[in-house]
Amino acid sequence: MIGLGSYAFFWQQSEQAEAPLALIGALERTAELGVGLFQICDYAPLLAMSPAEIREVALAARRLDIRVELGTKGVAPDHLRTFLRLAEEFDAELVRSMVYAPGFRPSLDEAAELLAAAMSDYESAGTTLALETYEQVPTRDLVALVERVGSDKLGICLDPANVVAGLELPRDAVELCGPLTRNVHAKDFAFARQDGWVGFTYGGAPMGQGLHDYPHLLAAVRPEQRGINEIVEHWLPWQGDIKTTVEAEIAWTVTALDYLRSNR
């Protein structure tokens, strides 16, 4: 299933926006685009919301017929259980996380112990925990960690764009993670020469116009056949002013949805 994530609304929800979108606004925009899935990912205000506010957002999602996934960072059992409780409020079947959280960088051995302590609760709830590929943990180590914990509710959120900063090739990450992938972050990426031709900038690109071999990902992971959701997000750089940046963000989202729908 194709979905949108918080990072597809990064600038629309930013403080720079004249009227920053709240969660319900992002859900309404998602519904307007004919999308039935939204991943609330790294959305800092979520943990500060009251139970009544959480219920209001969850009811809005149900009213709009939008399924919800959640996203956070870290593997501390208490934190993961907090997100499991939130997942129950939203009827979310998946929580995306990352091995490291701000101020907490466990060793892989420690991460395995922490995950093992949390996964029984996820298994009982029938909720999947997907750890994202990114440059701070080599992909082979992430795969080994998931295999070591050995839970059928623990998998990988595949984001091939992230691993480039760790000097890995996106295609290699796709092939390593394919069997364990439970979620995909779908965005394109490219290099551009910096002004003056000294060095490069690595950033986002409209879907289908960058370096991401997405057909290779589709062939290796088979998300549609395996019921793996593809969540659209962007690395959209500042475009000089908020109006132009938001307009570009909306256009990139439409481009990504068109690309993913045409490649089903």
UniProtKB/TrEMBL annotation:
Superkingdom, according to UniProt? Bacteria
UniProt keywords (A-Z) are: Carbohydrate metabolism
What is the protein name stated in its UniProt record?
TIM barrel protein
**What residue ranges are annotated as transmembrane?**
none
What Gene3D superfamilies is this protein classified in? Divalent-metal-dependent TIM barrel enzymes
Originating organism: Georgenia halophila
Pfam families in the record, alphabetically? Answer: AP_endonuc_2
Domain Xylose isomerase-like TIM barrel, by residue range, is: 78-252
